[in-house]
Backbone:
């Protein structure tokens, strides 16, 4: 059963009416209802608040990294383990093809259902997950294979074990190594990009966000708890923090916004996956027109200019 947010309820009723009309073979009614649906989708989704976009980014039906990997990759092979401690299921590494391009895809996976969420640690990687991601990225560099990173995490896991195995060092190491990685890299926030857990696979030649994704240094709930001692003020914090793709694009903190379907990736996975694949192939073509030195210089300038301002 599909899950509908509060502001999607009118869409739900129209879609249910469409299904009833299809069962009755009343094609005229289906046509009229589809027009009503298109109008309602346009009305609602063209006027979303930042908090509503946050809800969409966290929607339980929203495609996760593994969903996109299965939809856009062929002849894929999963890479396991960091060669130091263990395999972290919260990080996925796949070598395969997108179209005719050989690619290494690294993604954060939240998991569906109780057992799978626990297995994936709710998408919060341990340090060995980031070390696995770096191992995969260095393997791609060795064989001149481009890297696509799919960001979707509430943040790196803050547990005692993760801290004992040096979580902060693993993230910092990824920032350094990915900044210097000598192959084409593209990172896309597909859902929720939380703090250093997202940055650890977010340093790339091109950094983009899906239309309804968010990216922030802390969750709105955490922010409101710190500022107002009240996690229930998350909506006010969301509005103040500027965490939507449009906000970050206006601040020049991301390169591009990927136009997933207006109704959301959770309602049209195939179209969302196609948008990601098309963006990756298009940007990869542009990056290959640059010399290695020009590409690395451009990456360096982009990373060092973040947060710059003038009065």
Residues:
């Amino acid at each position: 059963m599909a899950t509908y947010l509060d502001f999607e309820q009118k869409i739900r009723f129209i879609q249910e009416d469409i299904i009833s009309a299809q069962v009755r073979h009343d094609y005229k009614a289906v046509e009229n209802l589809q027009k009503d649906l298109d109008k309602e989708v346009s009305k609602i989704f063209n006027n979303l608040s930042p908090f509503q976009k946050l809800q969409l980014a966290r929607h339980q039906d929203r495609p996760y990294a593994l969903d996109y990997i299965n939809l856009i990759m062929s002849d894929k092979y999963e890479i396991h383990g960091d060669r130091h401690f263990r395999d972290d299921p919260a990080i996925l590494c796949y070598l395969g093809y997108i179209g005719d391009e050989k690619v290494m895809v690294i993604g954060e996976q939240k998991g569906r259902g109780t057992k799978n969420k626990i297995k994936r640690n709710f998408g919060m990687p341990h340090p060995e997950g980031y070390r696995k991601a770096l191992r995969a990225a260095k393997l791609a560099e060795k064989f001149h294979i481009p890297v696509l990173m799919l960001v979707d995490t509430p943040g790196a896991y803050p547990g005692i074990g993760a801290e004992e195995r040096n979580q902060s060092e693993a993230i910092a190491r990824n920032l350094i190594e990915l900044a210097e990685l000598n192959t084409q890299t593209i990172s896309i926030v597909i859902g929720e990009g939380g703090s250093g857990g997202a940055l650890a696979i977010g340093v790339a030649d091109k950094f983009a966000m899906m239309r309804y994704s968010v990216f922030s240094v802390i969750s709105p709930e955490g922010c409101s708890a710190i500022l107002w001692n009240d996690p229930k003020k998350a909506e006010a914090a969301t509005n103040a923090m500027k965490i939507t793709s449009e906000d970050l694009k206006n601040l020049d903190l991301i390169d591009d916004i990927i136009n997933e379907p207006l109704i959301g990736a959770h309602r049209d996975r195939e179209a969302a996956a196609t948008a990601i694949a098309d963006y990756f192939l298009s940007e990869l073509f542009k990056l290959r027109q640059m010399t290695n030195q020009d590409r690395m210089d451009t990456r360096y300038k982009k990373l060092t200019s973040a947060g710059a301002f003038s009065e």
In short: Residues 45 and 207 are 24 Å apart (CA to CA). Residues 52-305 form a domain with the 2-enoyl-CoA Hydratase; Chain A, domain 1 fold (CATH 3.90.226.10).
